[in-house]
Specification:
The structure is a single chain. This protein is an all-alpha fold. Helices cover 91% and strands 0% of the residues. It has 3 helices and no strands. The chain is elongated. The protein starts with a helix and ends with a helix.
């Protein structure tokens, strides 16, 4: 019974993460929620006895993809700052 309850809680958290990424206005918050989604999926894959998929989800979903999102967000904010500086000078 306890493990079944844990699985239900994980699935509810997964659905909350999936929906909240779409409704979040802040990009940094969206990235963090996406990371949480990937980590929850990793735990679900482990419970389904698929350790290879769990490792892949953790490495790609929570690791590489999130780093790429953070770098992209940093570059977008840098471009916006440059545009604001040029507008202030002009």
């Amino acid at each position: 019974m306890g493990m079944r309850l844990f699985e239900i809680i994980l699935l509810i958290c997964l659905m909350v993460c999936a929906v909240s990424v779409g409704f979040t206005k802040d990009l940094l918050t969206s990235i963090i929620i996406f990371m949480s989604y990937s980590l929850i999926m990793c735990v679900i894959w482990i419970l389904l006895q698929s350790p290879d998929l769990a490792i892949t989800e953790a490495a790609v979903g929570a690791g590489v993809t999130s780093i790429l999102f953070f770098v992209t967000l940093k570059k977008i904010r840098a471009i916006r700052r440059e545009g604001q500086n040029e507008q202030e000078k002009g």
